Give the backbone structure.
Amino acid sequence: MATSTTFNFTLDIGDIIEEAYERAGLELRSGYDYKTARRSLDLLMLEWQNRGLNLWTVKNASQTLTAGTSSYDLTAEKIEIIEASLRTDVGDSNNQSDLTMERISVVQYSHLTNKLTEGRPLQYYVGRSPDNITINLWPVPDSQETYTFVYYYLERIEDSGKPATNNMDVPDRYLPCLVSGLAYNIALKRPESVSLAPALKQIYEEQWEMVSDAFREKAALYVTPGGYNIL
């Protein structure tokens, strides 16, 4: 039996939108049809950010700390901190060391008696604004060592962009779910297809559950008194 021997199948944004319209029982006919579908596509990506931990958006970064400076604004694509540590002696193969930092709430931070205390940072809380997040450290970094805040974060899914030849910033395994979700959202906006919305919604949720289960962390989870460790 002959097979293609290739593993390159994907859909660009034009294909995704066309497939979604067909599932909603419609035809893609005008520039406005494309524009409104692309808008729904970007809204769908924001919805996915709210659904939980999308593993392909987990990235790592570092921030060199300045003595006496407790707050650091992160760039807009960084929407959540997952894990953080304090690194000393960066680049020294014999002495580089990471100390896990504790994330605290703004309430816990507000209860700290002296927020100007300087020393080796041990805790952080994440402040939020409409535009970005801010890391607030305690104690405030001192000048005894050079500290680096090393962290894993969730990155915002990239916008669709205008060219129909763009690809979406999602793994190929998510394409069936993406098409199903877009078909559902398109059906909601078209009177002639709104009757299909409940069925499209069900298919979308089934696809989401399927891919979320397949595309999850596979490391073993060991529960211990007082906390947990993932090994």
User: Anything to note?
Assistant: The longest strand covers residues 78-88. The mean pLDDT is 93.
